[in-house]
Specification:
Chain B: Pathway: Amine and polyamine degradation; putrescine degradation; N-acetylputrescine from putrescine: step 1/1. Chain B: Belongs to the acetyltransferase family. Chain B: It catalyses: spermidine + acetyl-CoA = N(1)-acetylspermidine + CoA + H(+); spermine + acetyl-CoA = N(1)-acetylspermine + CoA + H(+); an alkane-alpha,omega-diamine + acetyl-CoA = an N-acetylalkane-alpha,omega-diamine + CoA + H(+). Chain B: Pfam families: Acetyltransf_1. The structure holds two protein chains of two kinds. Chain A is α+β, with helices and mostly antiparallel strands. Helix content of chain A is 30%, strand content 33%. Chain A has five helices and six strands, in the order H-E-E-E-H-E-H-E-H-E-H. Chain A has a four-stranded mixed β-sheet with strand order 1-2-3-4, with helices on one face. In chain A, helix 2 links the parallel strand 3 and strand 4. The radius of gyration of chain A is 18 Å and the shape is globular. By secondary structure, chain B is an alpha+beta fold. Helix content of chain B is 36%, strand content 28%. In chain B, strands 1-2-3-4-5 form a five-stranded mixed β-sheet, with helices on both faces. The longest helix of chain B is centred in the middle third of the chain and has 16 residues. The radius of gyration of chain B is 18 Å and the shape is globular. The chains are: A alpha+beta, B alpha+beta. The interface between A and B is large, with 69 and 72 residues.
């Protein structure tokens, strides 16, 4: 679905590092070796970013702040070394430190390996338990509503 | 049709917002699950970094159907982020006191006009929200306005890791 990513570096910069960040990120980096993958360098000389998690804070009117895990990815070549667990541990610490009541995220129902990963860490399927379904009204329909 | 005024919530509205949150929870027979306090609502919504935004509806004294209450409805929303398209507006909660439903068209106004303007002004790509699959009236209301069920279309399921398990993970070596 690469063509569906319309977000630009400019927008990511403004939205994440302006006065009011709309998202937060943690990145996982490994020491750069002679065989580093091209185009993945960052300013931190000697390190390459190989994974990230994007999150933000949401709000439940019954219990207050929640940490919402939006995106979570580790490059294929670097999986199996516990990086994912470390990232999730860091996010848990962030959630506790910022007095969040829990962490929410969505997973596609066919993504059984991710579901297992999360269930091993105590995740519960609220769609299953409480019947929640995610809905969207896209921009086109929002504009249609406003012109009525 | 009753007159009402739609406006951004102010710190003084916090007691009414909590009252309405509890009324909605009571309607779902879950009032004891509301553990949020006025103090938290105030800090979280009106501090340096608001974690939520609210719009409230109030009615003039002469139109009050329930004595003493001028704030009769609210919508709570915040901004989320889609890594493919950017900012989204997320409608978290929405409630109008029973006595004022149907006669004010307040619900349609909040949802379609105010939230839309907010979404467009903040350059949001769309509005997201969750609905319980048993809530047919709301589902129909949203579908008539072009909402699509992403859980159905794309298979998304909402998961939660609660505080107990977060603490467990953060304590692991």
């Amino acid at each position: 679905m690469e063509e569906q990513v319309v977000l630009t570096e400019k927008e990511l910069l403004e939205d994440g590092f302006g006065d009011h960040p709309f998202y937060h990120c943690v990145v996982a980096e490994v020491p750069k070796d002679k065989q580093s993958l091209e185009g993945k360098f960052n300013d931190n000389i000697g390190y390459t970013v190989v994974g990230f998690a994007m999150y933000y804070f949401t709000y439940d009117p019954w219990i207050g702040k929640l940490l919402y895990l939006e995106d979570f990815y580790v490059m294929k070549e670097f999986r199996g070394y516990g990086m994912g667990s470390e990232i999730l541990k860091m996010l848990s610490e962030t959630a506790v430190k910022t007095r969040c009541s829990g962490m929410h995220f969505i997973v596609a129902e066919w993504n059984t390996s991710s579901i297992e990963f999360y269930k091993r860490r105590g995740a519960s399927d609220l769609s299953h338990e409480e019947g929640w379904r995610l809905y969207e009204i896209d921009k086109c329909n929002l504009l249609k509503m406003s012109s009525k | 049709m009753a007159n009402f005024n739609l406006r951004k919530a102010e710190p003084k509205d916090v007691p009414d917002i909590l009252r309405l949150i509890k009324e909605l929870a009571k309607y779902e027979e879950m009032e004891d699950q509301v553990i949020l306090t006025e103090k938290e609502l105030l800090e979280d919504g009106f501090g340096d970094h608001p974690f939520y935004h609210c719009v409230v509806a109030d009615v003039p004294v002469e139109h009050q159907k329930v004595e003493g209450y001028s704030v009769i409805g609210f919508a709570m929303y915040y901004f989320t982020y889609d890594p493919w398209i950017g900012k989204l507006l997320y409608l978290e909660d929405f409630y109008v006191m029973r006595e004022y439903r149907g006669i004010t068209r307040l619900d349609a106004t909040i949802k379609s006009c105010f939230l839309l303007q907010t979404a467009v002004k903040n350059r949001c790509s769309s509005m997201h929200f969750i609905v319980a699959e048993s809530n047919k009236a709301s589902i129909d209301f949203y579908k008539r306005r072009g909402a699509s069920d992403l859980s159905l279309q794309e298979g998304w399921r909402l998961f939660r890791i609660d505080k107990e398990n977060l603490l467990k993970m953060s304590a692991e070596e």
